[in-house]
């Protein structure tokens, strides 16, 4: 009878292979089977042996290669067949990565799981843009929300952003108009500064700046595509002047 394999839920970080943890890099370099998301940079996949089997389970707003339940079943099936599985996820597995669901499915099937944290998309993007998510003079609270959550208009976002607070929105490109409308309806000032960080930690990274009221026009005019994060708060206006001169600045 085959020994049950282990599922490693590995955070691949925000894109740059240099930002992998040592544990993550070592697992990828010795992997025989990798199940990866679409946001995992090809340079990270290239670290794996040429003989490693690679399975893409890329998701997009309009298309899922596999539904989440099927991904869970795939991980369990491969592990029960005696294979170790490196499950690579962009950012951190437990921050909007559905790592919790996959770990629960594995544990329920008696499959050993190890979770390897990664630099989250928010941390990586903020660092690359030199935006401090917290600042003694500007922000002591940080909130992370999903911009594609169901019932967006019914969410109560009052207090998530404003003076002394930073709001980081994942997956908010397609719903930028609703996000701006919702935040202003919940009391956030239309002139609150924000930054849209596209392709963070990659050579093609862009940082676009503007006020909250201009967010929908900014996203449309600049043809912003995922992966992108929206950071809202006074901290976005404090980015180093040298960095600000090197990025695209929205009027």
Automatic annotation (TrEMBL):
UniProt KW keywords: Methyltransferase, Porphyrin biosynthesis, S-adenosyl-L-methionine, Transferase
GO biological process, one term: methylation
Matching SUPFAM superfamilies: Tetrapyrrole methylase (SSF53790)
This protein's pathway: Porphyrin-containing compound metabolism; siroheme biosynthesis; precorrin-2 from uroporphyrinogen III: step 1/1
GO MF annotations in UniProt: uroporphyrin-III C-methyltransferase activity
Pfam family for this entry, one: TP_methylase
CDD domains in the record: SUMT (cd11642)
EC number(s) given by UniProt: 2.1.1.107
PANTHER family: S-ADENOSYL-L-METHIONINE-DEPENDENT UROPORPHYRINOGEN III METHYLTRANSFERASE, CHLOROPLASTIC, SIROHEME SYNTHASE-RELATED
Family as reported in the entry's similarity comment: Belongs to the precorrin methyltransferase family.
Protein name from the UniProt record: uroporphyrinogen-III C-methyltransferase
